[in-house]
Amino acid sequence: MREFAFRVVYEAGADDLMDVFIDNPELSSRTVSCHVTPNTMWRVDRVEGPEAALAEYDEAVAQLSRCSSLRGMGGCEIDWTHEVLDSYPTGRVVYSRQSEGQGCRSIPYLVAHYLGDGLLLQAEQQGNEYLWRVLADDGAVMSDIYEELERNLREGLSLEFEHVEHSPNWADHWTTATSDLSDEQHEALALAVAYGYYEHPRRHTLQEIAGEADIPTSTLQYRLSSAEGHLARAFLERAGTPGGLRTPPEASR
């Protein structure tokens, strides 16, 4: 199997939904599952970020009438529905379903159309980038897909090709997708470890660490808690937690 990767880069103002990610760099979205037929594409995405950014995301999704991943790259109206499967202060799990039609085809449809059955896709949105990874047979050729995408890029979008990996560690892309940390989250964890935040007793508080690093305490706290949440969920998912991951019921008052 081979892994192909490419990214669509958006200028501010080119797409309403991507503008939310551009305006909120700590907001991110990753596919949990993605499926496509000649008529329909449906997927589940995990979206995570600060509460204010998620509120902007919720509003943008509720008003969505064009999709950022279509041929024409969002320039076509679509028959699109969605449902929030899970909601918590720093994240959402969102199911969406959209029509496939002549002149408007999703990236998963185009990939399946040219490469056939047996492939897997993963998508990530953060900042101004929409990254796609494709796992396909060794003999797969992406040139036709790249050419069609380039022909249909609208103003404000550009396409970048990443790499072709002949022996991809694809299992890690999927089983640890929620533990992929941003540079800011890595930095927060590194600072916490370096300053003894996880030692017993703690050598420094978050306020002290934030002061040393010249970062607002609230920002450091958010980045650290987000990183810890990513790692905890990935650990439980990898370990096969009985019953899966569930949102705990609200505490009774």
TrEMBL record:
Annotated HTH bat-type domain residues: 181-232
Cross-referenced InterPro entries: HTH_bacterioopsin, HVO_2928_N
Pfam families, per database record: HTH_10 (PF04967), HVO_2928_N (PF24281)
Sorted UniProt keywords: Transcription, Transcription regulation
Domain HVO-2928 N-terminal: 3-170
Protein name: HTH DNA binding domain-containing protein
Species of provenance: Halogranum gelatinilyticum
